[in-house]
User: Which sequence fits this backbone?
């Protein structure tokens, strides 16, 4: 039962990285010096999906609190600065995207766009550090608390954070080639291909830095799985690049989406059966079973929440289906 | 500096800003459902314009509700990891249910509603708004289930120092729950109704060209607020009995029950100050005063007859002046409920100092200052935008604007590809 909930937690967080990932990628691309109309068109390409994307994060943290309360407290408090940064980024993006077109003046909208850029950057960097922090182990003491913040400031965490920034930028650009009108997609395609390649390089670098990190090597319970998934991640990006070259934007987007989901699987599978590996005392490592809520709570959540999962996923799918296709002609402009 | 005090200040600041926005969200969405339903049934374009105008304000207001809500959700883990460690098995369940069953769907539906104008069939589009409203109420309900458990922990047993769930139905029949839910929902309706009445009054005092439209929303707002204030008062006073019984120390003063309870706590948890700060009850007094003051809405209600409310002018001014009152009252009520349970985070079970995360005070202070400035700045920006859009009137809200119509609020024309 704990494994099922752990998988569900992973599903929602991976879903957030995939869906929120293209929000942030599109957000980062606002930093380019394009005209205001193009910036607005990019945001409205995300348009109807935006509100449904970020809620995956809220749901993931809800599952974390309900089904893994001990992990919730130690993970968030133990990655304090990284979570603060990510959270500030999430807030800036959610406010920026929804409010940027409410003032009419050009300079106010440009200022909001900068807010979105900064927010997207913070969110990607923050979640990158959180994921890297899990993979390199945390100073969890025998009293059960993770103490200190300096454990987060490592070369591997920095490399992973930059890799996640590169990943969301590539994912966002790929999303826009899929969603914008054909002429605009053609303009963006070379940039998307470059970004995908950069992301592959950044992921490769982070993987190498990780392999050379003592802490990562000690914390990894299944190093082979980790390496395999990292190779899979790079492969997905190469597939995306080829698909972009052949104008198969759908395939390319599926590939970059896979690339954003894989880090979550990688962290979960490499550390299994642990959720948190302690760097100070092996006995203080927290297994997934220990981190889970007690049986009556999981049973209750199973009865109440799981029957609704098809509805949750169904309504999200309905949103994707209704607003599928390129934003040509009849698409509403609101953001 | 004291990490505990900083963390408490941060939660109070975030929760207060959150409450100011979600009260409007819950109140306005209810009225929007009415307006859009009226549009579907009658086909009268006035109701379409009303839906777009009030929907625009609703959507702007919604932004800060999400932003502050996300920060609160994370704060439980960031600042209060003891809460998840000791009582997470029980307290976490309603919060998890809220995110999955309510908020997740609410936001998904709202995104489709905003972008579904002129694209979806009218019935489907309206159904989405019903979905938004129902999940908003469900959200408020589950949050209050969680909060009521902190006020009055039930349905659990403690094994090895950790609370485990034994009876979930006890959480749903918690005496701290239902009257509070009624009170909060009617306060939200009061806030939404007052907002609608006051903004309409402003346009009517300025001789708006949209007289018919704002006359309609004035009437809806006044009727809603008047009915709601009656409910607010009833649920409010109905709570005193049950809250006094389950939390004898809440309202200060000394009673035999409170003394017995404090003696029991002193025996079990050691000596300490088990009474809440006086501040909590001073606020409660003001809130009750505001509640009685807003009861005067019953005197304004008859003036709807033959539009005396508009012809006399001064009732319109009264409505505008009174607009801050429901906002002040919801904050004061919330403070009374939350500060009144101090020093407990879960009443009689877990003290706030046991729930705090072991975070360096400087880091906590950075978080407090950073997020307070961020959310405070966003809140003020949001209110400025709300005021501007409210003042701009219903001529051409961006919400629901046909895709073929060039956006009047853009400084330059959009290229053909948009």
Assistant:
């Amino acid at each position: 039962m704990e494994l099922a909930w752990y998988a569900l937690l992973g599903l929602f967080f991976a879903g957030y990285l995939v869906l929120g990932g293209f929000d942030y990628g599109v957000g980062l691309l606002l930093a380019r010096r394009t005209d205001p109309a193009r910036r607005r068109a990019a945001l409205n390409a995300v348009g109807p999906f935006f509100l449904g994307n970020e809620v995956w994060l809220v749901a993931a943290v809800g599952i974390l609190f309900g089904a893994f309360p001990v992990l919730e407290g130690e993970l968030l408090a133990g990655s304090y600065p990284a979570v603060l940064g990510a959270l500030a980024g999430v807030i800036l993006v959610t406010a920026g995207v929804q409010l940027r077109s409410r003032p009419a003046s050009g300079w106010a909208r440009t200022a909001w766009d900068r807010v979105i850029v900064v927010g997207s950057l913070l969110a990607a960097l923050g979640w990158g550090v959180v994921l890297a922090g899990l993979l390199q182990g945390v100073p969890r003491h025998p009293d059960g608390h993770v103490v200190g913040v300096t454990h987060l400031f490592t070369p591997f965490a920095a490399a992973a954070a930059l890799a996640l920034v590169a990943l969301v930028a590539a994912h966002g650009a790929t999303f826009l080639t899929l969603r914008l009108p054909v002429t605009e997609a053609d303009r963006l395609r070379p940039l998307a291909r470059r970004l995908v390649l950069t992301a592959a390089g950044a992921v490769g670098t982070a993987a190498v830095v990780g392999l050379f990190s003592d802490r990562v090597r000690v914390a990894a319970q299944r190093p082979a799985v980790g390496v395999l998934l990292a190779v899979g991640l790079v492969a997905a990006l190469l597939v995306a690049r080829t698909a972009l070259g052949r104008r198969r934007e759908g395939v390319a987007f599926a590939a970059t989406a896979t690339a954003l989901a894989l880090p979550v699987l990688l962290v979960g599978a490499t550390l299994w059966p642990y959720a948190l590996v302690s760097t100070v005392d092996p006995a203080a490592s927290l297994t997934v079973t220990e981190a889970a809520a007690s049986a009556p709570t999981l049973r209750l959540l199973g009865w109440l929440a799981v029957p609704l999962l098809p509805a949750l996923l169904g309504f999200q799918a309905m949103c994707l289906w209704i607003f599928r296709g390129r934003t040509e002609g009849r698409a509403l402009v609101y953001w | 500096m004291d990490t505990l005090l900083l963390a408490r200040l941060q939660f109070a600041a975030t929760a207060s800003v959150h409450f100011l926005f979600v009260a409007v969200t819950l109140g306005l969405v209810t009225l929007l459902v009415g307006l859009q339903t009226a549009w579907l049934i009658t086909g009268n374009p006035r109701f379409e314009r009303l839906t777009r105008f009030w929907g625009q304000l609703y959507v702007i207001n919604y932004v800060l509700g999400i932003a502050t809500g996300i920060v609160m959700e994370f704060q439980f883990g960031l600042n209060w990891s003891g809460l998840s460690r000791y009582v997470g098995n029980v307290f976490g369940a309603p919060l998890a249910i809220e995110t999955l069953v309510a908020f997740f769907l609410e936001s998904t539906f709202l995104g489709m509603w905003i972008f579904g104008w002129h694209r979806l069939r009218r019935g489907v589009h309206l159904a989405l708004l019903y979905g938004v409203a129902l999940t908003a109420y469900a959200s408020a309900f589950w949050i209050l289930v969680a909060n009521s458990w902190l006020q009055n922990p039930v349905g659990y047993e403690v094994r090895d120092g950790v609370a485990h769930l034994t009876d979930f139905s006890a959480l749903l029949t918690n005496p701290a729950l239902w009257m509070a839910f009624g009170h909060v929902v009617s306060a939200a309706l009061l806030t939404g109704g007052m907002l609608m009445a006051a903004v309409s009054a402003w346009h009517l005092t300025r001789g708006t060209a949209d007289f018919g439209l704002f006359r309609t929303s004035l009437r809806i707002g006044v009727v809603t607020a008047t009915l709601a204030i009656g409910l607010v008062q009833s649920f409010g006073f109905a709570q005193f009995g049950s809250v006094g019984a389950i939390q004898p120390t809440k309202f200060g003063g000394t009673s035999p029950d409170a003394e017995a309870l404090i003696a029991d706590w002193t025996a079990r948890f050691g000596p300490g100050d088990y009474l809440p700060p006086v501040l909590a009850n001073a606020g409660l007094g003001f809130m009750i005063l505001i509640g009685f003051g807003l009861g005067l809405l019953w005197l304004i209600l008859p003036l709807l007859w033959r539009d005396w409310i508009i012809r006399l002018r001064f009732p319109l001014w009264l409505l505008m002046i009174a607009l801050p009152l429901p906002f002040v009252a919801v904050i004061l009520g919330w403070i009374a409920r939350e500060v009144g349970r101090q020093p407990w985070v879960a009443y009689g079970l877990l003290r706030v100092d046991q729930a705090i995360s072991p975070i360096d005070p400087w880091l906590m202070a950075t978080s407090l200052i950073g997020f307070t400035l961020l959310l405070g700045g966003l809140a003020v920006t949001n209110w400025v935008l709300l005021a501007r859009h409210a003042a701009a009137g219903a001529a051409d809200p961006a919400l629901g604007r046909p895709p073929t119509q060039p956006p009047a609020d853009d400084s330059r024309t959009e290229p053909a590809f948009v």
